[in-house]
Design goal:
By secondary structure, this protein is an alpha/beta fold. The protein contains six helices and five strands.
């Protein structure tokens, strides 16, 4: 098995103190030597519009597509908005899947972690993301599923884990994802 070295991380929250960004950084800190988890910004991507594409893709779309294209795998870390996917994340998936027939997502292994201050841990968003990735022909990590509820209580002031049980789950999740990527 070959260990991946370049994994793109898409965080579905733009909030400065995002629990999801904290989780993404915590996962990056758990990665073994030689494995880079790189957060790819999505907040500057204009809404996808096929007319704009026909006139020439904005630089931010081109940059985003190139970054995703170079990645060996994709990790999605997202909150849930209204029992679904945040608009900014849906837009990023749309931008990467276009123009038709040129999806940068196709075939890349993926994993999904959703976090919420509520008890359900972003279950709805997790499954909506999964549904979109299946359409992009992306093999998605099946187990362990990662719905992190009560996420406001798992990190300390520095973004570290407050308890070893949570840290161990994050490590198990990351290890399973890296094993999926190595098999792909």
């Amino acid at each position: 098995m070959n260990q991946p070295s370049n994994i793109a991380v898409i965080v579905g929250s733009l909030r400065k103190e995002s629990l999801n960004a904290k989780a993404a950084r915590a996962l990056a800190d758990l990665a073994p030597d030689g494995v880079s988890l790189n957060i790819i910004p999505i907040g500057d991507l204009p809404h996808y519009n096929e007319d704009v594409e026909a006139e020439g893709a904005p630089e931010s779309w081109t940059r985003f597509r190139e970054q995703i294209g170079k990645a060996e795998a994709i990790l999605f870390v997202s909150p849930e908005y209204n029992r679904s996917v945040p608009g900014v994340l849906k837009n990023a998936i749309d931008v990467g899947s276009r123009p038709y027939g040129s999806s940068v997502w196709q075939g890349k292994p993926a994993a999904i972690m959703t976090l919420s201050p509520g008890a359900l841990g972003g279950f709805g968003a997790n499954h909506h993301i999964r549904q979109m990735l299946v359409f992009q022909d992306m093999p998605v990590l099946q187990q362990p599923e990662a719905y992190i509820g009560n996420a406001g209580s798992i990190f300390d002031e520095q973004g570290g884990f407050k308890d070893e049980k949570t840290k161990a789950f994050f490590q198990t999740f990351l290890d399973a994802f890296l094993a999926l990527v190595a098999r792909a």
